[in-house]
Amino acid sequence: MKVSHCPEDLWKQYCEEDKCCTFFQTPEWHQTAAKYTHAKIIPILFSWNEHQCVLPLLKSHRFLFTYYFSPFGTYSDLITPKPLLDYQIKEISSFLKNKNVLLFSSPFSTNHLPLARPVSNSTYVVKLKLLDPNKVFKNWRKGHKDNLRMGIKKGVKVRLANSVKDLKCYYELYQDTVKHWGSTARTNYDFSLFEDIWNQLIPSGKAKLWLAEAENQILYGVIVFYHQNHAVAWNSASSHAHLRYYASQVIYHDIIAHALKHNFDIFDFNPSGGLEGVTKFKLGFGTEELPFINYFSSSPLFRLWQKIRG
Questions:
Q1: pLDDT higher than threshold 90 for residue 113
Q2: How many domains does the chain have?
Q3: Is residue 310 in some structural domain?
Q4: pLDDT at residue 309 in the model
Q5: Can you tell me the distance from the alpha carbon of 131 to that of 260, in angstroms, rounded to the nearest whole number?
Q6: Cβ burial 230-256 (10 Å sphere, 16+ → b, else e)
Q7: Over the range 123-142, which residues count as b (16 or more CB within 10 Å of their CB) and which as e?
Q8: d(CA 288, CA 290)
Q9: CATH number of the domain bearing residue 200
Q10: Phi/psi at 69 (5° precision)
Q11: Domain check: are 151 and 222 in the same one?
Q12: Which residue among 105, 127, 136, 201 has its CA within the 20 to 30 Å range from the CA of 67?
C-alpha cells in the first residue's frame, strides 16, 4: 500500500463517483472548516496498483501531538469509486493505528474503517423515495401533524434566505438557541463561519439557508447541505419566544418536499448530540434511526499524556 497526499481534483472526482459520499467529505466542506479552525487539510490517498481511495481529515496540534479529526464532528469516511477488499481496510487501519485520529464514520459508507475506542452514535433519516409527494407528512407522528396544520393556519411561510440581512437574523436566532440550551449546547460558532457558508457554499448550490416566518418575523431557520443523493440539516435555530407558531414542522415539511422534488434519496436530520428531547423531535417526522461509530485512535504516548492530565 502506498500512502500520499491526494490532489484536490482527484478528491473531487472520487466525491462524484462514490455515490455514498456526503457533502461532509468534500473539499468544499474541509476548506470551510479548515479556515474556521485554523487546521490543515489532509486528504490521505491510499493506493494499490490500480485501486485507490481517499480519507479526508483535518490536522491540528495539541501541545506536542499531531491530531487528525473530522470537521466539526461530521461524517468522514473512505471515498472510493468501488468497494475495498478486507485486506485493504486492514492495511489502512494499521496505518492509522498509532496516530491520534478522531473519526466520525458515515452511516452511508460501504467501506467502513474500524479504529480503536469505538463509540456508538446515530442519525435520523427520511427515505424520500418511500414518500407520497402529495403527503410527505403521512408517516409523521400525530403531534407533528397537528403542529404542521396549526403552523400553516397561523400563517407560517417558508422561503430561502436572499440577503445578508437574512443571514444576520438567522445568526441572532442561533445565538438565542445556544442561550436556551445553556450548558448542553454542543456548539457556539462565530458569525464568521456562517458568513463563509453564505459567501462560498450557498452561491455554489451546495448549501441553502431555509427560513420560516410569520408576521414579517423570522421564527426558524435551517442550513441544509446537498451532495449526490443526500440532503442533510447541519444547523438549525429557532425563536423560543414564538414556539406557538409551530414553525419547525412547517419548515421541515417544505425542506423535505423540496428534496423529494429534486430527486434526493435521503433527508438526514443529523445526530442529536445525546439530547433526548432532540431525538424525540426528529423521530416525530417518521425518521429511521441509522447507527454509526465514532472512533478515537491514539498513540501510546498520547494515551499516557491523557492519563497524566486526568
A1: no
A2: 2
A3: no
A4: 63
A5: 8
A6: bbbbbbbbbbeebeebbbbbbbbbbbb
A7: bbbbebeebeeeebbebbee
A8: 6
A9: 3.40.630.30
A10: -155, 160
A11: yes
A12: 201
